[in-house]
Amino acid sequence: MSALRKSSPLAVTGKYLALGFYVAFALFPLYWLAKIAVTPDKLIFTEGTALFPSRFTFENFGTVLLATDFLSYFKNSVFVSIGTAAITTAIAAAAGYAFSRFAFRGKRLIVALMLITQMFPLLMIIAPIYKIVAAVGLLNSLTSLIIVYTAFNIPFATFLMQSFFDGIPKDLEEAAMMDGCTRFEALRKIILPLTLPGLGATLGFVFTAAWSELLFALMLINSNDTMTFPVGLLTFVSKFSVDWGQMMAAGVLALVPSCLFFIFIQRYLVQGLTSGAVKG
Amino acid sequence: MTAIDTAVPGRKPRARPTFYFRYMVEPYLYLTPAILLIALVMLVPLVIGVSYAFQAVNLLRPFQSGWVGFANFEALWTDRKFWLALTNTFWWTLGSIFFQFFLGLGLAMLLNTQFHGKRIVQALVFLPWAVPTFLSALTWAWLFNPTIGPLPHWLAALGILSEPFNILGDPDLAMWGPITANVWFGIPFFAITLLAALQSIPHELYEAAEIDGATPWQTFTKITLPFLAPMIAITVMLRTIWIANFADLIFVMTGGGPANSTQILSTYIFTTAFRKLDFGYASAIAVALLGLLLIYAAILLVLRRKLVKI
Amino acid sequence: MRGLIGAISALAFLAGSAASAETLKLVEVITSPERTEVLQEQVDAFEAANPGTEVEIVSLPWGQAFEKLATMVAGGDIPDVVEMPDRWAGIYKDKLVDLNDKIAGWDHGGTLTQKTLDMGRQTDGKTARMIPYGFYLRAMFYNKKLLEEAGVASPPGTMAEFMEAAKAVSALDGKYGYCLRGGPGGLNGWIMMAATMNGDNTFFDEDGKSTLNQPGSVEGIQFLIDMYQNGYAPKDSVSWGFNEIVAGFYSGTCAFLDQDPDALIAVAERMEAEDFAVVPMPVGPAGKAFPTIGFAGWAMFDTTSNEDLSWKLIAHLSSPEANKEWAKRVGVIPIHEGAEQDPYFKTEQFKGWFDTLNGEQYVPTVMPTYLEQFGYFADSIALESSQEALLGEITAQEVADKWAEFLTEEYARWKAAQ
Questions:
Q1: Angle of helix B133-144 relative to helix B151-158, nearest 10 degrees?
Q2: How high is the pLDDT of residue B205?
Q3: How far apart are CA C372 and CA C161, in angstroms?
Q4: What is the CATH number of the domain that holds A84?
Q5: Is A125 inside any structural domain?
Q6: pTM to 2 decimal places
Q7: How many interface pairs between B and C have CB atoms less than 8 angstroms apart?
């Protein structure tokens, strides 16, 4: 904060303690998840509350990778998430640009409509969407998931992109257009390179959201070949027992991409939102 | 955007697009993909979904449906379970938002200072947002189970619980389980957005305040808060709406039980739609929820406008 | 160009339809890795015996199977052959093909036990909407070690002894008597106790009124409430489902578990054979016990494009050899006569169920799954009200009255539609 005030040692210790608490709180459940993943099956219940398992094993990971269809689920999820992230970011960039640069009739209405789509429980539109998708013949296809996820993520992604665009002065395009570019050329050549952090952040955010979506993946996909991994996790819950070790191992494996992605982009999210925050 | 040409003298301006084009058409060129997609995939099904509320719709008997007007809503009014779910939804949302927001704000303020290892801490502390909710619900359910998780034992040792038992099975305490998981999940959201807002506050203001001898509290209320207000308004509104609709955590951790003590409107909609297969009634509940959220959003927007004026 | 595209699409269409002429879609709803494996084996054998046919197995995740199948059917993605649990038959019955004629013309139709045929026709007593593949029958698992520790000499034979034994085990530190299923799927337990204490398991009297709020039934309901409120069942068993009670049993937390043969598979994997055994359910004051019996089977949707082939698949899966293999691996009681002579079913663990089948004092109870809203009753209404009762929010009489009212109404509706 200020360079003038010197912090007392008490305040500094307090600050580090608080930070420590936050980090511990954030990581502890993840640690527990990983711990179950490396605990052998027999010990999962008997040593349930121990902080460290007495024996480590990587056999759960082995089984998940080799004996289940997990790799295929993983591949499908990657395809859907990257597809959704890419398309959503492109569309949201366009829409966010429009919101940022133009004042036009119907702006309020569109914002209101976007907000409403967030309010209605997705459960209710599953049936109509299911019928539409079935009628179009896209049932069981990853494309249908990409389309639905994109539609649902556009509002928030647009909000993000709008913030990023707000942080770039309008004069830049004005100057370019004065020199003879069309707006679109100006956008492409000058503005977009400046919003790369914003694009990255939006990509990462949408990727994370699409990666963990469960409901639509469950309902729209029936065949094993096109199953995504959240639904795959559900298959570990069978009538006889829950294969906890394997499920958690699959969970850990699945966490890796979204966590890595998120770690990478969180910096840009903060950066990008900063410029737009005041205008919010 | 003005229509006045700000031509630089000496340079021949290219034929500028007409006012009509720039005001009416050009924005929509950029907006069309978004609008099209949202309209087709969300709004049309939404209208269809809302229309179910006025019909008697059984999922497996498509030929038995018929328009029943407001009958579903009348039934809703006298449904004890609906009001119970509504109350639960209120406490669920309030409890989750309260802790998420203040803890997130605290974290944002901490991250706004300098300290060793800031990069790593910042990256780690935002991780919960990247975890699929199904997985985090399972993990937290484990943590609260005395046979296989440490939390009941710690809580008992701290004296909060009389003996280590699973709070998810206790109707008075069950709601705290999903709330805790939700708080864990939601802190990063507020921390990121509020940190961004904090970083946009000019430093000179703080320095000036310090020179004038302001206390930390005064600095906070007179400088920080007003700058944060717009961001707070948006994020709280958006997150509240998401949480009110958020059934995953509760569904996995308690299933709405025991005895409906954690049943919120979303889970009630789910059981009505997919267990009873009564889409008409489920839709009525959803419309009621939608109405409440619209009122809430409207109130918040009016409040915000009033506050900004002040 | 257009001509070329037209030709190519025509060819593709022909090729596609030729390939799909002999394709069947089979949906399994009670899914586990073991079951899918066995099913795949049997399907492979079917494909080998019928060259040119292809069967696609779709496995629905068990926890979401009901809503998934409902959504699939409502959306038009309807399978040819489906695994149909008894509880859902009442909902789907109008969409399932009547198999009576096919069974009559079938080689193995004659060895089906009478119970199998009766259950297959349960929806209205006449139309065979499915062929069951096996029966789930309740019996009492008990933990020998815990009983020994608690000083209980022999497994309980009557309800009173059961309560006493549970009390004794609960006196041990951190242990409980009964693995109560207070959560999803627990209705069977309540019905059993009610019927046992009432001495009678008919659901509806001659006037069509439910028997669940008769004084004897209320006593049975009170039995379980007492069990919970006295602390003879773990405190969070109020929300325990199948996985939790089985885990509670094999982790040694509670000593008694009432379950079907499929739980045996999970338990046997994790407990030593000498640590547990299975006996029939304890009898009530009338000297009888009424363990619930359930079933699931194979059914055919009437939208199937190839009825004969679908029937062939069902017949293959229901043939004596295939059915016996299925029953062993999956944990049900097989459907053809003479099956219990097989050495697998003669072990000590299985004894509990066959004693139940053969003993006269044990009368199997069939749930009224022909009622359309029965699934909803079991999964929502009964679940919530029974939890309220366990927690002391309402009394046993109130619960019984609520259930009786709902079921009487449902029954009247069903009767009117006959």
A1: 50
A2: 83
A3: 37
A4: 1.10.3720.10
A5: yes
A6: 0.83
A7: 70
Give the whole-angstrom CA distance, residue A154 versus residue B185: 21
Full domain range(s) for residue A262: 67-277
Structure tokens given for A191: 């503005």
Tokens of B296: 């809430």
Q: Which chain C residue lies closest to B268 (C-alpha atoms)? A: C380
How distant is the Cα of A21 from the closest Cα of chain B, in angstroms? 10
Spans of chain C, pLDDT less than 70: 1-21
Report the C-alpha gap between C77 and A136 in whole angstroms: 13
Most confident of A53-57, A138-142, C386-390: C386-390
Residue A131 touches partner C, C-beta closer than 8 Å: yes
The strand pair at B55-56 and B66-67 is best described as antiparallel
CB contact under 8 A, C92 and B171: no
Please, which pLDDT band fits residue B19 given cuts at 50, 70 and 90?
low
Q: A70 vs chain B: nearest CA distance in angstroms?
A: 16
Topology at the third CATH level for domain C21-136+294-349: D-Maltodextrin-Binding Protein; domain 2 (3.40.190)
Is there a domain that residue A141 lies in? yes
Q: State how far the Cα of B212 lies from the Cα of B205, in Å rounded to an integer.
A: 11
Token pair recorded at residue A211: 């990666």
The structure tokens listed for A127 are: 């049936």
Shared domain check, A23 and A47? yes
Whether residue B207 and residue A125 make contact (CB cut-off 8 A), yes or no, is: no
List the single range of A23-37, A97-111, B240-254, C75-89 with lowest mean pLDDT.
A97-111
Same domain for A76 and A188, yes or no, is: yes
Instruction: Report the helix count and the strand count for chain A, using DSSP H and E.
Output: 14, 0
Find out if CATH 3.40.1090.10 is the number for domain C139-290+371-417: no
Best mutation site among C253, C384, C386, C393 for testing chain B: the one with the most B CBs within 10 Å? C384
The shortest C-alpha distance from B172 to chain A (Å) reads 24
Backbone angles phi, psi at C198, to 5 degrees: -85, -15
Is A241 found in the same domain as A271? yes
- Tell me: do A47 and A78 sit in the same domain: no
Q: Judge if A100 and A230 occupy the same domain.
A: yes
Whether A151 and A15 share a structural domain: no
How many Cα atoms sit within 13 Å of B278 on the Cβ side? Answer: 18
Q: Kindly give, in sequence order, each residue whose CB lies less than 8 Å from that of residue C34, ignoring residues fewer than 6 positions away.
A: A238, A240, C265, C329, C330
Asked if A255 and B106 come within 8 Å (Cβ–Cβ), the reply is no
Tell me which residues of chain A, numbers 211 to 240, contact chain C at a CB-CB cutoff of 8 Å. 218-219, 222-224, 231, 234-235, 237-240
Domain map of chain C by residue range?
Answer: 21-136+294-349, 139-290+371-417
- What's the pLDDT score for residue A6? 57
Residues A271, A195: one domain?
A: yes
Residue of chain A minimizing CA distance to C266: A240
B71-309: in CATH 3.30.1330.90: no
DSSP code string of A36-96:
HHTS-TTHHHHTTT-SS-SS---HHHHHHHHHSSHHHHHHHHHHHHHHHHHHHHHHHHHHH
- Indicate if A106 and A133 belong to the same structural domain: yes
Between chain A and chain C, the number of residue pairs with CB atoms below 8 A apart is 72
Does residue A2 form part of some domain?
no
* B72 in Cβ contact with B283 (< 8 Å): yes
Cβ A223–C58 below 8 Å, yes or no?
yes
* CA C253 to chain centroid: 25
Q: Determine whether the interchain pair C72/A222 forms a contact, defined as Cβ–Cβ distance below 8 Å.
A: yes
Residues of chain B with CATH 1.10.3720.10: 71-309
- Distances from the Cα of C353 to the Cα of B63, B93, C357, angstroms: 44, 49, 6
Cα–Cα distance, A52 to A32 (Å, whole number): 9
Between CA B213 and CA B215, with CA B214 as vertex, the angle to 5 degrees is 120
